[in-house]
Amino acid sequence: MTLLVETTDTQPNEEAVLGVLINRCGKMRMLSHRVVVTLLLQSRKETPCSKGLEGLEKNLLEFSQIAADVLPGSATSTLPRDLKRVLDQVNAVSPSQAEDLTRFVSTARSIQHRLTAPGSATLTQPIEALADFVTTTLLDTLNAIVDGIGRALDHVVSHRQSQSGKQTRMIQSSITELEKISRMIMIISVNASIEASRVGEAGRGFSAVATEIRGLSQAANKVISSLRADYEGTR
């Protein structure tokens, strides 16, 4: 199950991906309880029910898939590479928390295999031990992981806002510089016109050039005004 969230852009929306991941990690609580209940029910049957075993496998597989997305260094994670780096950066999942996820899956798998093994001893004690682990340690771990992913989400939002602020400042600076250049061009054209008038007939050519420069400056001013109006309208 992939975590990619479709957007109008070519890249998935990072905030949306992390939001989905938070919801899925929340679902791991329910999945872990389902696994324990199913194991307990099936262990009380002389012959485990095939439908019950199928449900057990489905829940264990989904839990494992979600865990693979959040475990540091996971080779089967479906998260974008940049988001995996963010999760590592904010320590969303600590080594001990990763061990708890792995422990749950491996223990549940072990009990699952013993359910179908002929002549298997009673499984009540290991299942009860797993249930105690799920309702205490694993629950705390899953809550902490959700908090960790929340920190990653805050990091992504802050970074995006910072980048947006930088772009805004760059645009403002560029427009300001264009306005300065336009004013300088206008001053040059005015000075050229004055100098051309001083030399009379000989400065007619310079006067024509000055007029063209003034026209360019005025056209540039219109473009700059349009840019500023568009920019102010998008803020």
TrEMBL record:
Domain of life where this protein originates: Bacteria
Matches recorded under Gene3D superfamilies: Methyl-accepting chemotaxis protein
Keywords, ordered alphabetically: Transducer
Keyword Repeat on entry: no
Domain Methyl-accepting transducer: 165-235
Name this protein carries in UniProt: Methyl-accepting transducer domain-containing protein
Lineage: Bacteria, Pseudomonadati, Pseudomonadota, Alphaproteobacteria, Rhodobacterales
